[in-house]
Design goal:
The protein is mainly β. The chain has four helices and 28 strands. A four-stranded antiparallel β-sheet has the order 1-28-27-26, with no helix packed on it. Strands 2-3-4-5 form a four-stranded antiparallel β-sheet, with no helix packed on it. Strands 6-7-8-9 form a four-stranded antiparallel β-sheet, with no helix packed on it. It is elongated, with a radius of gyration of 42 Å.
């Protein structure tokens, strides 16, 4: 027998073949004595053999009568008194083969474009990890700060408007953030001031002073409240409708505030600092004099925490990213303070954005990969790596329809990526909140 015929796969799937009933495949007979007609068999063996001595007797009337009596006209010697058992049906093939399940209908795989849709020059952009210089409004206007100036780009007609240029003694611009109405924008400055501008009339509305003692690198809107984070480690809630705009402060960070993000419900605020600490605050505790205002103090990161993103489809889920010495993306249950998962990205994490339509998370990176990575949630498996920038990707923001992402890097370019878009499927526009500046004319 050949060696190939002896090869078998231990514990492998066996091939089941239909076999005929046993009685059709036997090559020898093992009698059952209890079922044999031994008298007749004995006669046939001893006296029923054909021979010359029996030829004469076989023709006599006695022989004929004996034949009829013992049924000697049968051709078979061995016979059974009992009838053979009823054949058992072979096992139907449908019972041996595994059931065939209909394949579940799955959505067609989404192709993520590997290159940017558009690349634009951004000369003079400040290469500063602690700043936030890019934001996309709900009215589809992209704002970017380049040195002392803020420019507005309209993707619809590709027009560019210079909103403001700050004097050298007050600049450069260190942060920008659109209000929810898509018309007003906050501009944080290196001199600790925050300006409010009307982008339609290109007019300065007011300047917020007296809150910070250093540059304002982080801004976050919560309806009528503008939250500011400074180099002094202070977090301040400003009500832009009233003269005394400071309505609450959060105390806990011991270094510069790198990132601020309000939750979708507006109830909780996440803040990251250069002290490597992530805080979760409740909106109601901003005016509290309690020595412990925070809901959670999370110290798992080992570098500055700038990148923050609240999950749009799961309440109390927050993603955070650490700086160059940390390089990790961590997912948090902000209610319990537990770290759900942590993944080492291999590079400084500068920004995070959730996909509003799929369970995906996008990160942008600085030293040393200078790339964008699309992650599948919750497995945190890499779905795509997008390259193109030649220096660290410091800033990232999302279009109002949720499909396109804009990034700005130290290579002095702004690039747009259709990373969240599904070809051929239009995305519904998100509903906007009421205008936070409905009574803006009352500001004095």
């Amino acid at each position: 027998m050949s060696s190939s015929s002896n090869t078998r796969n231990p514990l492998g799937e066996q091939n089941f073949l239909l076999r005929k009933p046993n009685w059709e495949n036997l090559d020898r007979f093992i009698p059952n004595r209890a079922a044999l007609d031994l008298d007749y068999a004995h006669y046939m063996v001893r006296g029923g053999r054909k021979g010359s001595e029996n030829l004469e007797a076989a023709s006599t009337p006695y022989q004929k009568l004996l034949t009829e009596t013992f049924n000697m006209n049968r051709a078979r010697i061995f016979t059974f008194k009992n009838k053979p058992p009823t054949p058992v049906e072979a096992i139907p093939r449908r019972l041996l083969s595994p059931p065939l399940h209909k394949a579940k209908s799955t959505k067609p795989s989404r192709r993520v474009p590997q290159g940017p849709e558009r690349t634009m020059d951004a000369p003079g952009i400040v290469d500063n990890f602690y700043s936030n210089l890019l934001d996309w409004s709900s009215s589809n206007i992209l704002a970017i700060a380049l040195g002392n100036s803020v420019y507005l780009w309209n993707p619809s007609d590709h027009s560019i408007v210079e909103l403001v240029t700050i004097d050298d003694e007050d600049g450069p611009v260190t942060s920008i953030s659109w209000a929810l109405d898509g018309q007003h924008i906050a501009v944080g400055l290196d001199n600790s001031w925050v300006q409010l501008w009307d982008s339609v009339s290109v007019r300065l509305i007011r300047t917020l002073t007296g809150g910070h003692h250093g540059r304002v690198g982080s801004l976050a809107w919560n309806k009528r409240i503008l939250t500011t984070g400074g180099m002094d480690g202070r977090i301040i809630n400003n009500d832009v409708r009233v003269r005394s705009h400071i309505v609450g402060t959060y105390k806990g960070h011991e270094a510069e505030i790198c990132g601020l993000k309000w939750s979708p419900s507006g109830q909780h605020l996440a803040s990251g600092g250069n002290d490597n600490v992530l805080f979760i605050w409740d909106r109601s505790t901003a005016s509290s004099n309690s020595p412990r205002q925070w809901l959670q103090r999370l110290e798992d990161h080992t570098a500055a925490v700038k990148a923050l993103a609240w999950c749009p489809f799961q309440e109390n889920l927050l993603a955070s990213g650490g700086g160059e010495l940390d390089r990790c993306i961590k997912l948090w249950n902000t209610q319990t303070g537990s770290c759900l998962s942590s993944v080492d990205t291999g590079s400084q994490v500068c920004g995070l954005l959730w996909n509003n339509y799929e369970r995906e998370l996008l990160s942008c990176h600085g030293f040393s990969k200078n790339e964008l990575i699309l992650w599948k949630y919750p497995s945190m498996v890499r779905m795509a790596e997008l390259t193109g920038h030649t220096s660290r990707v410091l800033f990232m923001t999302q279009s109002p329809d949720g499909c396109t992402v804009a990034t700005a890097a130290a290579d002095e370019t702004v690039r747009t990526w259709n990373v969240f878009g599904i070809p051929g499927v239009s995305k519904p526009a998100r509903k906007e909140n009421p205008l936070p500046f409905a009574h803006l004319y009352t500001i004095r």
